[in-house]
Amino acid sequence: MPIKSYLVFPHEGQQKALEAALELLPSCEVIPAQNKDIFVLVTDTSDQKEEEDILNQIHSIESLDHLTLVSGFKESHPS
Amino acid sequence: MVTNRRKFLKQLAAASAMSAAASMFPGIVFAEEQLEGLPKGLINWKKAPCRFCGVGCGLLIGLSDGKAVAVKGDPKSTVNKGLCCVKGYHSVMAMYGKDRLTRPLIRENGKLVETSMEKALDLVAGKMQEVINTHGKDAVSMYGSGQWTIPDGYVASKFMKGAIGTNNLEANARLCMASAVTGFISSFGLDEPMGCYEDIDHADVFVLWGNNMAEMHPVLFSRLLDQRLKRPDVKIIDLATRTTRTSVAADRSILFKPQGDLAIANAICYELVENNWIDKGFIEKHCSFKEGKTNIGYGLEDKFKFSDKAGTITFEDFKTFLQDYRPDKVEAVSGVSARDIKYLASLFGDPNKKVTSFWCMGANQHTRGTWINNLIYNIHLMVGKISTPGNSPFSLTGQPSACGTVREVGTLTHKLPHGVVANEKDRKMAAEIWKVPVERIPYKPSYHTVEMFRALDRGDIRFMWIQVTNPMVTMPKLNRYRDAVQKDDRFIVVSDIYPTPTTDIADVILPSAMWVEREGMFGNSERRTQHFEQMLDAPGEAMSDTWQIIEVARRMGFNELFPWSKEDHIEEIWKEYARFHEGKKHGMAPYEALKQAPGLQWPFVEGKETKWRFHAKYDPACEGNSFDFYGKPDRKAWIWARPYEAPPEIPDTEFPFWLNTGRVLEHWHTGSMTRRISVLHQAMPRSYVEINPEDAKSMGIKNGDQVRLVSRRGKIELPASVHERGQPTKGQVFVPFFDESLLINDLTLDAFCPISKQPDYKKCAVKLEKVNVIN
Predict the structure, then answer these.
(1) Has the ipTM of the complex gone over 0.85?
(2) How confident is the model at residue A75 (pLDDT cuts 50, 70, 90)?
(3) Can you list the alpha helix ranges (DSSP code H) found in B189-305?
């Protein structure tokens, strides 16, 4: 049951579109920054398979430039 | 409960990412409520300094069920003010790698086999004594690091110098900041920065001398960028040989040729004099002018000897010396335009601007490392911009206790906890505190790090105990020293927490307790001592490096020198050690105060920290009412005439590229800890070679292509990195050293600064070849 956080980098000028696209996905929580074109994404999935599916969907969003994994936890201990 | 915990972990993950964003891209603000509301009661938080770099961020370690499960920045720490970098956030995970060493191993018939700690320590003590009996006390040695806690280093010094009676004690900090030490000593007579991180809050201009702060000291760099957001006139100038994340974030990136920094610094001084931007009153009252030896060599040969000699010169002599460094004259050797040099000089020369310089490995890992340190001080002294808030020449360190342990305790061949072995008064002080005969402490330094490994190769040294460092990855010209340690009749003991290329060559491996698995103290770059308590049990038979040394010393008959109990030894060691530094110039905070505070700066006098040294307004050790450089007998700072001299190996037709080596944000030095943290390993899984895009294009090399680097000492194959994180100048390549499967130090040169004996990892000559892959 992994929980992971990412820094998300949109293509220039497409922050809002990317935020909107991510908010439509299940298991995703978007935390916007107030003054910079990046934001934090936290995924909370039930297993590895669901996590991979979500990541595949995220990577297919056109307004996404790239994302960087920052932190990962399993249910009880840091992964 | 499960829901609460899951919610907590989600918030923690979010906070980690927000802090990582803020430290890597400062100025990013998240809604405050997003940072609040972490559930309380599930986790017990305790303070500790970060285990990794020399910045010394204050952390809060989250403990639950006997495990460290989380980390957050300590908002009470004046160092990081609650921020953390990506390494700090994941630091506790370094304790839980699957292949953690938990049992001692000894080599029998070529194979490592498990044994008990008692037997392993018996073997270490017995072997050490046997070598002393057969070959003399100078045939045994100890090699530690700037990751030693202060108590580790203190007992190592007392054991080697006070008990055994040899100066064969060195630490890997020789490889990272020895030039900073000799720079401070030759310019000011006392080691360590006069300023503190609070300078960042006051400076108008930051000049970074070959210092990729955005990756190496990200939290401090965040503070720089934060100041620029708050005060739009703040300028950051990146003076470097390679374009990095720091260059991109800076207001001005100025690229120079390797070794060109010597000429640039002198040219800045030329301009200051030429434009009358100097502070004549300050110079007349507080500075002396000196010259030293020139054409001083590079230490490439065994048993190389050099000692500098200061001669007094006049200000007029110094001005004459500077005539060779008119900006247009140094364009060719430095690669920097006269216009840019004049711009730099104008920043230092502006009477309305406070200037702070930062540097680290770029200046220190340099065959003229002491000189470039002197030259940066020269600039600040010429304009009187020193020892006051915001005016600070500031040498940063790379390891968490390079300052606290190696420099302050003095775990180097020539040092004692106070002063140097060559000084009779300092030896007498050590003998009195240690209760040993003064004759036991040798007055002559023996081997600095490179020479110590050469001595091991020659057979002058037969026994080496290595703690908390990984020289089989970090030594320059590694091929020679790897062969040396594997010779017959050499006995190597390694204390570490994970298997490394250094444990691979060990005869005995002792499992060590790591960081908060034991009590200790670190000392950071700004003279701040930080205590941490034991929060966790060490796994298996793992034991602190301090206690390992005590156990071996006792087995060798030195019980009286190490009388402490397991329960109170750290407190008792601290109290004994602090006696060496009593007084206004270096007084250390008492143990009880250190336990309470997130860190306290020395000199700690009458319950107060000293933020800026050498100015009476801030430093109680000063006489008079203004500057007082009391480290020197004439109570003045010394401005040195140090010329440009070329490095020992320069690219030629056979080896046409400069090789520069260094670190990356995600990994701590040789990666033995951070490569076991999956998040960091995934982010930076293997080494690479950065190639300038024009060079890559002309050689038909694309990003990801396999290439071969060859120097006169070794070769390596690794993937090309083009247009990625960093970009070297044309004719230069850069390779990080974190990856033990791609040992770049097989190619580097063991040339060093003749004064500091610190090797130069930033400059040697290589050729670059595309590897043709046959499908």
Answers:
(1) yes
(2) low
(3) 213-216, 218-230, 245-249, 261-274, 280-286
pLDDT tens digits, B462-478: 999 999 999 999 999 99
Q: Tell me how far apart the alpha carbons of residues B768 and B709 are, in angstroms, rounded to a whole number.
A: 5
A7 and B69: CB-CB below 8 Å? no
- Is B429 considered catalytic here? no
Reported as type and span, the H/E element at residue B344 is helix B338-349
CB pairs under 8 A between A and B: 96
| CB neighbour class for B330 (10 Å; exposed up to 12, middle 13-18, buried from 19) | buried
d(C-alpha B49, C-alpha B679), whole Å? 21
Chain B contact present for A55, CB below 8 A? no
Rounded to a whole number of angstroms, the CA Rg of chain A reads 12
Q: Active site residue: B47, B72, B87, B415, which one?
A: B87
Domain assignments of chain A as residue spans, ordered by start? 3-73
A73 and chain B in contact, CB less than 8 A = yes
The pLDDT mean for chain A works out to 84
Q: Read off the pLDDT of residues B725-743 as tens digits, 9 standing for 90 and up.
A: 899 999 999 999 999 999 9
Name chain A contacts of B86, Cβ cutoff 8 Å.
70
Domains of chain B, start order: 2-96 (2.20.25.90), 105-175+400-491+501-563 (3.40.50.740), 178-396+632-641 (3.40.228.10), 657-770 (2.40.40.20)
Torsion of CA B256, B261, B266, B267, to 10 degrees: 0
Instruction: Give me the pLDDT at residue A78, please.
Output: 37
CA nearest A36 in B: which residue?
B28
Query: A20 CB near a chain B CB, below 8 Å?
Result: no
Q: Which residues contact B108 (CB under 8 A, 6 or more apart)?
A: none
Look-up: residue for tokens 């990013």?
A: B28
B399 noted as active-site residue: yes
Taking the C-alpha atoms of residue B505 and residue B419, their distance in angstroms, rounded to an integer, is: 34
Cβ contact, residue pair B27, A7, below 8 Å = no
| Rounded Cα–Cα distance for residues B372 and A51 (Å) | 51
> Could you read off the pLDDT of B149-207 as tens digits, one per residue?
999 999 999 999 999 999 999 999 999 999 999 999 999 999 999 999 999 999 999 99
Contact A69 B5 (CB under 8 A): no
Query: Which chain B residues have any C-beta within 8 angstroms of a chain A C-beta?
Result: 2, 5-6, 9-10, 12-14, 16-18, 20-21, 24-25, 27-31, 34, 67, 69-70, 86, 89-90, 92-93, 96, 678-679, 682-683
Residue B702 burial class via C-beta count within 10 angstroms: exposed 0-12, middle 13-18, buried 19 and up: exposed
DSSP A11: P
- Within 10 angstroms of residue B42's Cβ, the number of other Cβ atoms is 15
Fold for the domain defined by A3-73: Alpha-Beta Plaits (3.30.70)
